[in-house]
Amino acid sequence: xxxxxxxxxxxxxxxxxxxxxxxxxxYTGGIYSFAVKDEEIILYVQNPGDGCEMQCQIGTSExxxxxxxxxxxxxxxxxxxxxxxxxxxxTEKYRPLIRTIMSELAANRMEREQFTIAVFSDEIQYLxxxxxxxxxVKQAIDKITYQDQETYLTDVLYAMLEEINKENxxxxxxxxxxxxxxxxxxxxxxxxxxYAALEKxxxxxxxxxxxxxxxxxxxxxxxxxxxxxxxxxxxxxEVSDPMEVxxxxxxxxxxxxxxxxxxxxxxxxxxxxxxxxxxxxEESISxxxxxxxxxxxxxxxxTEEVKPVPETTVxxxxxxxxxxxxxxxxxxxxxxxxxxxxxxxxxxxxxxVVIVLAQRQKKKNQFVSAKPRRDGDVPGADTDVxxxxxxxxxxEEAPKRSTMFVWGEEAVHTLILEDVNNPIRRFEVSLxxxxxxxxxxxxxxxxxxxxxxxxxxxxxxxxxxxVYVENLSRSNGTYMDGKQVVGGAEIYTGCVLKLGNLMMRVxxx
Length: 509
Fold this sequence. Notes:
The structure is a single chain. The protein is an alpha+beta fold. Helices cover about 25% and strands about 30% of the residues. The protein is built from eight helices and 29 strands. Strands 8-7-6-9-10-11 form a six-stranded mixed sheet, with helices on both faces. α5 (about 190-200) links the parallel β9 (about 175-180) and β10 (about 205-210).
């Protein structure tokens, strides 16, 4: 019975590894990694070959400039980090193969490539760091010994990523992990926190797993790191030729470094979607990531300080001038002030009358709530029409398109979406918090009358006095005035959002 279970488990692992390889066989032209350096966005992508054209959209605008070249032309083309679990759970039958793979990786290095070799338990121990000397790297590999110890890959990898990010280096990095799987401390970092760190600054991770007792779940979690970052995974039990592993990892050596210069208006320090389209011949490949934009400091033009010209002194005659007779003091006339005061009082009374009349008229107006009107319903029914009065600092909301003055607190904007092709469908909500727009019941604006709208299609929110839309739909996407929204983009009154087949006109007041 135990043998049957072991074969079943092994077959499942082989199937999972095969599926992983199928997924990444289609990862052509994808973005391996990215970084922000000197107010530029650096993307490392798979090389599509000569004669390719590139376009890059940042938010809703095209990039200012795009340049690319192979990483082989860089001073440091790539950094390879090998992280080895040297606990006894990596049994003796795997150790010669592991040593061969590590040694061949170092032997087949790129010119000027740097290697870091580290072993780990609950902490990381670096044997050699950023070394380009093959003899030193090989010596560090040959001296590795295996210890009776507990290993916690999640915590170690999280700590290593923090150290890498502190270096603020834009060089392409790949991480090779050899272990029996991911095992977390009960009070350590969670895998969700690790995935969030990798999403913020992704590095391709290649994983090699070995079986030990019942470690199916641990191996699955480790192989997920490769799926998340665009790397590759192998079961050591199935590696018959180490050079096949080396060749697959070495494909990253052909990567392109793409330097993108965003427009000044996009450099506001917020997270924006960056969509790169690579066209080679008749094929076009697109991939996108979310990047924290650089903050562009605009140098102020300094004007030369004009030094005051010293006044030339003219000699004054010694004879004293006769004092002029004092002018007669004008009599103060308060009559104009009285007229001004009376005029201001009259204007105030007229303004009060206008406000009262406007408020009475406003109570007669009807607004359609965020719940859409069903076909056949009669306007004015209690189920569909809600009379809304927003009190702000003791003053009721002003009529549509009027100017509102608020004292003592920040104004809360109102968002209105109107179906361009069916104006009777009009949705109005407050922007005091973010607004979900989509088909599902949880959305504040529910567009359940159009099947091409996703369950959670987009999110609209206010930030620093502006209003933004963030795409949440993976199938149909969100478009603003005909341009695809990648990540988030600023919206304003008059623009049109395309959600599935719906065209929704935006009004913000």
